[in-house]
Amino acid sequence: MLQHRTQIWHETLRNHPRGLVVNTAAILGATLIVGHTHSHWFWLWVVISLGVSAVRYGIYVYCCHSIKQHSAQAIPRHQIVLLHLSILSAAINWMIVAWIGIPEFQAKDKFAILIIISALAGGATGTLASLKITGKIYIALLIIPASLRMLLMDDPSLSVLAILGFIFAWVMMSSHQNNFRLLERSLHLARSNEDLISQLSVKNTEISNINSELEQTVEDRTKELQYLANHDLLTSLLNRRGLAEQSYQPKPVIHHQLFLFIDLDRFKHINDGLGHDWGDLLLQAVARRLKELVDELAAECGACHHSVCRWGGDEFAVHFICETFSAKDVHPACHYLQVMLSQPYQINGRQLHIGASIGIFEKRSEKLTDIADAVSCADMAASEAKRLGRGRIVFYSEVLADIQRRRLALSIALANAHKDGSLKLLFQPIVAAKSTEVVALEALLRWTCAEIGPVSPDEFIPLAEESDHIINIGKWVLQQACSAAKAWQDKNDDRIAPKVAVNTSIRQLIQTSFANEVQAILKNTGLGADRLVIEVTESVFDEQNMQQALISLLALHEMGVEIHLDDFGTGYSSLSRLHEFPIDAIKIDKSFVMSADEKSLAVVEGALLIAKKFGLKVIAEGVESAQQREKLMLLGVDELQGYFFGKPTEIATLSLTETSVPKLTNNA
């Protein structure tokens, strides 16, 4: 028992400098991030925290010196108590800054502190694994008070974070307990090995064969444990830890470092459709093929180091270090790797197809980039490849990093855009082609981000759809558009009041409650269903979402709402789908209207022919000249929209003329 406590104490002291360095770095990081607040209490906290770190270091040095002087004696209890109290004092300092700072700090500072505290708690599961009770108390002091503070602030978003914090605390304490058990088991195995070796050393030559067998057993057990710790059990490739622990010391020459992050495309469809057993078999087949391809490329380029890792799920990582690899050969090599990974896989008589999106980080330097940093950069590039449509190869760059940071900032801001006053609606007229009478007003969304300024819809709408913020934003748009249309209708002659057209995302349509929400908005605003036009894109024809989208559109159509198909000709429309869906009109994309070539004209003529066969109206966007209007009218287009008839403007600037045609009084 004494030996066990001594080993635990040694392990505690061995890990203590790591935790101390991380804690001090976290204090300095928090100072750089939050220091602009000019709060006196915060600077006092910084001074006290650094003082605590200094005291912790002094206690550590004292304990280490005591071990050297009295290595054979029992560990003094007061040393253990001092070290434990110093660790808990650091946790209390972070608890204080979270408790006081969460209500006071700005959002970015608040989340920075939460991230730092979460990172410290996560790290503590390893660095404090030897402290069975103190480690858990440390984690609890870091997370639970901060979560409780957020819960008490009566902010829905912070309440969600608070609940996640409690869950995170439970997970971290469970992880700490597991790490403690693994440590005890490892120490027990180590002691067992020492005992075996000690026993073997006193045996005589008559039992030398038995000694050799026992020694081999110990060696095999150690190798097995090391292998299990550094390799993925399913694919036998390196795991994250194995990749990180690989050490390579380059010669003092320029090296070409290449890191690939590979994310399989369509793997989830196979995993969900055929089951996890088939998914595991496919991952094993991908791992074998990837290992062979990487070995082949490494041999061709003369790589001085290469490794393949299963990062997790359907993600893989490849690391090359070459001395002579030409930069111009990088993309062909990666393209070859992608093409070969996308070839069919024959598994148990079934042919399976997947693809691969690859993010690449490359650097030519004598000093190698840290694995964690290389993974982060390559992962960022892989995420961009996925966003661009899968099956892509994207190289990391500082420009990409800036774009990702901007996307993150915009995505965070979008969460509250529908209630912070940063959104507004403009309206653009849609006129009858022959009479130029305004028959509808299309509601167009504009956003001015508080931190960044005006943001184009082409940028923030896709972001909103990716993050599901489009659900709340879309509901806000529908509410505002219907209210504005009703107010405009009440102000003017009801007989000539135009309809209002609202663009609707596929994410909204596949909500089972969408039709009921539209009906409720119409009832609350008093706008008739026949005054509302819902514009959808050709994404409603996608097999994955088509069934629920069709249910929603049929319900809307039964209410009397018109359904228009926007951007016709740019997606994947199917004539059979036009027949199945309750479409009242198609809108030809402005790219075909604004282009003067014969191919674009053929698309317009084809759209007209299809529409007339199906009994649909045809609306053309992007009309900017009298010549375009004349040509489209002669072709038989029913309605027109574009700057020629009016730019998007606020509803308040619309008025009636003597010809009963609403026109813009201010086209700015």
From TrEMBL:
<dbReference type="InterPro" id="IPR000160">
    <property type="entry name" value="GGDEF_dom"/>
</dbReference>
<dbReference type="Pfam" id="PF00563">
    <property type="entry name" value="EAL"/>
</dbReference>
<keyword id="KW-0812">Transmembrane</keyword>
<dbReference type="InterPro" id="IPR035919">
    <property type="entry name" value="EAL_sf"/>
</dbReference>
<feature type="transmembrane region" description="Helical">
    <location>
        <begin position="111"/>
        <end position="129"/>
    </location>
</feature>
<dbReference type="Pfam" id="PF00990">
    <property type="entry name" value="GGDEF"/>
</dbReference>
<keyword id="KW-0472">Membrane</keyword>
<dbReference type="InterPro" id="IPR050706">
    <property type="entry name" value="Cyclic-di-GMP_PDE-like"/>
</dbReference>
<dbReference type="InterPro" id="IPR029787">
    <property type="entry name" value="Nucleotide_cyclase"/>
</dbReference>
<keyword id="KW-1133">Transmembrane helix</keyword>
<feature type="transmembrane region" description="Helical">
    <location>
        <begin position="20"/>
        <end position="36"/>
    </location>
</feature>
<feature type="domain" description="GGDEF">
    <location>
        <begin position="255"/>
        <end position="398"/>
    </location>
</feature>
<dbReference type="InterPro" id="IPR001633">
    <property type="entry name" value="EAL_dom"/>
</dbReference>
<feature type="domain" description="EAL">
    <location>
        <begin position="407"/>
        <end position="662"/>
    </location>
</feature>
<feature type="transmembrane region" description="Helical">
    <location>
        <begin position="158"/>
        <end position="175"/>
    </location>
</feature>
<dbReference type="InterPro" id="IPR043128">
    <property type="entry name" value="Rev_trsase/Diguanyl_cyclase"/>
</dbReference>
<feature type="transmembrane region" description="Helical">
    <location>
        <begin position="42"/>
        <end position="59"/>
    </location>
</feature>
<feature type="transmembrane region" description="Helical">
    <location>
        <begin position="80"/>
        <end position="99"/>
    </location>
</feature>
<protein>
    <submittedName>
        <fullName>EAL domain-containing protein</fullName>
    </submittedName>
</protein>
